[in-house]
Write a structure and sequence with these properties.
The protein is of the alpha+beta class. The protein is built from 9 helices and 46 strands. 13% of the residues lie in helices and 30% in strands. An 8-stranded parallel β-sheet has the order 27-26-25-24-31-30-29-28. GO terms for molecular function: hydrolase activity, hydrolyzing O-glycosyl compounds.
Length: 902
């Protein structure tokens, strides 16, 4: 089926930053995030520059913009990651722009790079893209999620300026993954140069890039672990070198392994010679006694330094890789093993889309890191990165926080019989494995297309490609049991329970086989049908306490005949775990409403179910886990006039004591090992809270006595407490920055969430109110969004109003002011908060640009007046909706066929 889409668009109102040319050396300490798949190693001969700052942007078709001398002075100035537009919090229904977008960057290159090989590395350009340097087309790319790498050595001008021109087109295109039109997708493409861009320079004899080279199980650096135990570990390092110099190269490869404190614990040297114009792989091994091993609860990372030196001892290339020494394997009837030990904990986690409120997919690295941090705080041990390759920064963070990952190619309910589609799909599988094979967090590959009726040949080839590209340890690749070719996969996605009424589903594996590992790829969603999407699992924070409590119960207990936490924890050892659908509320193409089933909303504010998941984490303190962990207790009752009489508490402690009012009721809950299937069942204290009792105490002037106290005990000792107060008269706003301890970097694109809460005089959040909050930001940041997309003023939901601020390129103070609309004697008092951005670690290549206050907003109509244009738009929208009905029915049939009917 062919789909066509006509896009009418104009330029939206824009905000410009004052950009400056950076000449920053790398600060002490290493970046948290990899650059182009590695970490820069000082003094190695390889240099990395950040190219994110100083781009000109135009949304729409501009056929002449590839030319070097094209005048782009009227275009908007942006920094990347950049996502074409800012969107309202409710941005589903395919309202985001689709079509061409152009980026141009004028820059000068440092003179000392003249003798080096120079590459551009784009981590992601959405859709199909074309790249020109100084008017010459260098690359055309068909994938929105894998890196685009271009050799620009020959085309660079070192005597003056250079001009990069990029056309990024996120239009529907059935010739490459995911292939399906966005308006029929359960997620959105968004668009733009939405991930980082780097300039990488090194010697003409150099370590290659695995995604640039076409080498099966090769290219770049490949790290594997032939032997791992508590006593000794062997680390295999396969390095691909290419000689593009003018003669024979003789030199040495030097490896140094450092522990988490920077201490050298192993090293290796290999002499080599390589003829000009040739490339070759070199295998080396390192050995470590009594190694500190990587596990989800102890994610210890080592630094592997790789240097290439000539005969004279001068380093001409090198890099650092963060590695985790670990071995994961499935041993049939013996189950899952980690580092040669049985791993009997269930791997419970979430699915994750990468979009965020307002900015779509254009997340800076910090927001990917905060996603991982928040999920690990909640006890999540595994994330299924759906339905496409995710940003490398998220995988870096998963390495750091001990989150295992399932990595998928782009795809969702679509197959194209044209050969070009499968050819590109196979290439994408190789690209995914080559990009992410060295992450210790990598657990499973998902090379097949999600919920898709593909040919059996494709499944066999997809599995074969994973095995070819990852030949060392067990390559765990997964498939649905009802899919053609699933018989060859070592991991089968399935539920641990059968479908209600005895009717079997292709998503249920039936009799479990000892040699196969089983995993639930999605659980928790519970819609009435795949058109309306009414569900007791899909809850917006603004709907309040009772709906959020119901969501948590639904995710935890077998309230209906499908999978929940209790059934997953009670499943056989062969069934190693499952991932909730979904971590966060996210946008969708084929439905007018976002998906509301997240345990956090689109701004990453937690719902009540977040704390239910948190209660499943171990109660013992894990000293080597760099996330919140240990004992916890949380009262899921806000003491409002509408709060339930039954008080719900989440805790991983052995005993919970509840006190309702100072001289009121006292309750004790003691966990019984016999009653539980999940580690921490929901605790309900029946008939414990009554608003009329609260009212009586308040009328008597005894507000100080009104609270609910929960105390968590282990071995008879109180180890953690949580205390809730009712909120009284709203008095003021309170501001906080939700940065999780990772500061805002002054790089022109870093973003952080600011949250304004309505509080009473004692600081208790007033959950029930309809206040709208207006934000004002001055100093070295700008507020993202305005009233046009309902981002300022912001309605408060469940007591809080979030906003996003983006850093300028100058480190410094940021003043944030929040106020309610209108001024009155009894108005809620405003609040001001001072925050400060920090200098970025990276070195930047960009030219200074002038600040601009205004650019004309024009729509070219080619002689069509505005009334005719509006009429055409309405007719196109009517036709699209008509087509959409047929597309939605296709989606329903596809989801029902994979056992997702309920």
């Amino acid at each position: 089926m062919k789909y066509t889409k006509t896009i009418f668009s104009g330029l939206i109102c824009v905000i410009f930053f004052l950009l400056q040319l950076f000449a920053l050396g790398v600060q002490a300490g290493e970046s948290r995030f990899s650059t182009a798949g590695f970490y820069e190693l000082a003094g190695s001969g390889r240099e990395v520059y950040n190219m994110n700052v100083g781009w000109r942007f135009y949304k729409g078709s501009c056929p002449e913009a590839w030319q070097r001398d094209f005048d782009d002075s009227s275009w908007e100035v942006v920094s990347i990651p950049h996502g074409l537009e800012l969107l309202p919090e409710e941005a589903s229904g395919s309202i985001n722009y689709q079509g061409e977008a152009w980026y141009r960057k004028t820059f000068s290159v440092p003179e000392d790079l003249k003798t080096k090989k120079v590459y551009l590395h784009f981590e992601g350009i959405m859709g199909k893209s074309r790249i020109w340097l100084n008017g010459k087309l260098l690359r055309e790319h068909f994938n929105g999620y894998l890196p685009v790498i271009v050799d620009i050595t020959e085309g660079l001008n070192f005597e003056g300026e250079n001009t990069l021109s990029i056309c990024a087109d996120n239009s529907d295109d059935s010739s490459f993954l995911p292939g399906k039109p966005q308006q029929a997708l359960d997620f959105t493409y968004f668009g733009g140069i939405y991930r980082d861009c780097f300039l990488v320079a090194h010697g003409h004899v150099h370590i290659t890039d695995a995604n640039y080279e076409d080498e099966i199980a090769g290219g770049g650096v490949f790290i594997h672990y032939p032997f791992v135990s508590e006593d000794k570990a062997q680390i295999g390092v396969k390095i691909h070198l290419r000689n593009e110099s003018t003669g024979l190269f003789k030199g040495k490869l030097l490896l140094t392994l450092r522990d988490a404190c920077g201490k050298e614990i192993s090293k290796g040297v290999k002499s080599l010679s390589l003829r000009k114009g040739k490339a070759d792989h070199y295998d080396m091994n390192l050995y470590v006694d009594c190694p500190a091993l990587w596990t989800p609860d102890s994610p210890i990372l080592h630094q592997l330094e790789i240097k290439l030196a000539g005969e004279d001892g001068v380093f001409i290339d090198g890099m650092s890789q963060k590695i985790g020494i670990r071995k994961i394997e499935y041993r049939g009837e013996d189950g899952l093993y980690l580092n040669n030990k049985p791993y009997r904990d269930k791997l419970i986690g979430v699915n994750r889309h990468q979009d965020f409120a307002i900015i779509g997919n254009a997340l800076p690295n910090s927001l990917h890191w905060r996603d991982a941090k928040k999920l690990r705080d909640a006890g999540v041990r595994i994330v299924r990165c759906i339905h496409y390759p995710h940003d490398p920064a998220f995988l870096d963070a998963c390495d750091e926080f001990g989150i295992l990952t399932i990595l998928a190619v782009a795809g969702w309910q679509f197959w194209n019989d044209e050969p070009v589609f499968s050819e590109r799909a196979y290439s994408d599988i190789r690209g995914l494995v080559r990009r992410d094979r060295n992450h210790p967090s990598t657990f499973m590959w998902e090379p097949v297309l999600n919920e898709t009726h593909f040919p059996k040949e494709y499944a066999y080839n997809a599995k074969k490609i994973v095995d070819e590209e990852y030949p060392y340890e067990q390559a765990l690749s997964a498939c649905d049991p009802g899919s053609p070719g699933s018989d060859c996969f070592p991991v089968i996605y399935t539920h641990p329970t059968s479908v209600s009424g005895g009717k079997k589903s292709v998503y249920n594996a039936g009799t479990l086989k000892e040699e196969t590992m089983y995993f639930t790829r999605e659980f928790g969603d519970n819609v009435d049908d795949w058109n309306s999407h009414n569900s007791n699992s899909r809850v917006h924070r603004s709907w309040g306490e009772s709906p959020m409590l119901q969501q948590a119960v639904h995710y935890a207990s077998p309230a209906y005949a499908y999978t929940c936490l209790e059934t997953l924890y009670a499943s056989q050892p062969a069934h190693v775990g499952g991932t909730l659908w979904h971590a966060f509320d996210h946008q969708r193409g084929y439905h007018p409403q976002p998906f509301y089933g997240g345990i956090m909303d689109a701004f990453r504010q937690p719902k009540i179910s977040y704390y239910m998941f948190m209660a499943q984490r171990p109660s013992e303190k894990l000293d080597k886990l760099p996330a919140e962990n240990g004992p916890m207790v949380y009262i899921a009752n806000e003491m409002t006039p509408f709060s339930p009489q039954d008080v719900t508490v989440y805790s991983n402690c052995e005993e919970v004591r509840l006190t309702v009012f100072e001289n009121g009721k006292k309750y004790i809950y003691q966990r019984s090992a016999d009653e539980r299937k999940m580690p921490a069942p929901i605790i309900t204290f029946k008939d414990a809270f009554h608003f009329m009792d609260l009212k009586a105490l308040a009328r008597a002037g005894k507000q100080k006595e009104v609270y609910i106290l929960a105390e968590g005990l282990i071995n008879g000792e109180i180890v953690v407490t949580n205390k809730k107060y009712p909120s009284w008269r709203p008095a003021s706003l309170r501001l906080r920055v939700d940065d999780d301890g990772l500061p805002l970097r002054a790089d022109g694109s870093d973003v952080v969430t600011v949250i304004a809460e309505i509080v009473d005089e004692k600081g208790t959040v007033k959950r029930l109110n309809n206040t709208s909050v207006r934000f004002t930001v001055t100093g070295e940041a700008v507020l993202l969004g305005d009233c046009d997309i309902a981002c300022n003023p912001v309605p408060a939901h469940w007591g809080s109003a979030p906003a996003l601020i983006r850093a300028t390129t100058n480190a410094g103070k940021i003043n944030i002011r929040a106020e309610v609309l209108g001024e009155g004697v009894h108005a809620i008092a405003p609040c001001e908060f001072e925050y400060e951005s920090v200098k970025p670690v990276a070195r930047f290549i960009c030219n200074p640009v002038e600040i601009q206050s205004k650019v004309k907003t024009e729509v070219t109509t080619h002689g069509i007046n505005s009334e005719e244009l509006d009429s055409m738009k309405k007719e196109i929208l009517r036709l699209k909706k008509k087509i959409s009905k047929y597309e939605l029915r296709e989606v329903e049939i596809q989801q029902e066929s994979f056992g997702e009917k309920k």
